[in-house]
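Quick one: structure tokens for this chain, please?
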Amino acid sequence: MSGWNLRTGATTASLALVATTLATTVATGTASAAAATYYVDSVNGNDSALGTSETTAWKTLTKATAANLPEGSKLLLKRGSRWKGQQLAITESGNAQAPIVVDAYGTSTAKPIISGDNEACVSLDGSFIEVYNLQVGVPQDDGRCKWAGVKVTGNDNVVERNYITGAAAGVYIAPKAQRNAVTANDFVDNNFMSKNTQEPGNDDSGAFAILVQGDNTDIGWNEMRGSIADSYDYGLDGAAVEIFLGSGNRIHHNISVDNETFTELGTSHGVDENGNPEDPDGTSGNVFEYNVITGPKTGAALVTRGPQEPGEDPDPNGPVLGTVFRNNSVYLPQAGSQGVVCDAGCTNAHLSMSQNIIQVTAKTAYGPNVTDSHHNVFFGAAQHQMGGHDNITANPLFNLSNTANPLSLRAGSPAIDFGITKFSNNDVTGRAIDGSDGAVDAGAYEYDK
């Protein structure tokens, strides 16, 4: 995990299913086919083989994509294998008790590498699919996943413990996709711009670790680094988690370093090719908690918006309703950095924030009409333009010399015991928050007395 001490302490029911021994009977072409295990080896495989053992592995992802994968099946990719320009697409669906599992096998420490598709290197079109232990993409132009590393259009899928790099969107959660999970992955240098032109209008796009347009996604325990790129329209663009159209998503216990922005949220008033609204239910109810946001290249932690500034045109990407930002630790030493920005007439209907620590250089928080801001620790900025109560301005005493957890707290920090509500059972390191040593702390780390 690139030198960070990320102890999730979090297992899901889906992980137990991965360990379940699945039947290896090959049965294709019928709806009642038994679960099967297939192997793919880019070096020694043969697409004419059965694919049901390591010695009869297939060779290409084209063959694997064409395979029938009944509920409970496994598709195992050989460690050390590399596939360029071959998309892995899973169109079948598992179920909650028997998901379809894509994983690695073999003794090498190298993850199987899938790269070089212009749309998506891995496409999850079905539901109840779980993807583990792959490298998706490469950081260079030759071999990048030029739009998405992993594209998710189905429901109830899991993307976990993968290394994802070089894409415009490392993981893309498509509109209408529901209840997916993106957990404990490494996102590194997803810094490709899918659009970057000198044409009029602010339409450049790209450099997202995760782009969320679906609803109710769980994004937790990931590391995200280097989602930043040059842009003609914006100078720099990129985000660790970009939420556009998505609602009810929970973004928690992530480490974000040197992404241009940790998160930006927006909606659309446009219509699709069929004349239907692109975002009929609006963008609302997204929760950000226990995230660490830092790095000298990061310009802002959270950017969101209300409907309209007085006397100006309506915000084309607003309003975004019900965003919650709590127990996050933010340290942005860049000149001009901003913590939380909520403009365009933002009110309590659009943003609430509590128990955060925000140390930046320009603006700790902007939202003149927001008063639902409390028990935050602010420091270092020239401006603070947000209402609220029970906030303090004080040096949070981040332990910046702690390379494992550099935004943890030093003894005497005013953030210790400053919180009033326990929103999670664990801090960003996985340490239990049980209240036995006093009140909860502000920020993403619970201080160990």
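The chain has a mean pLDDT of 91.
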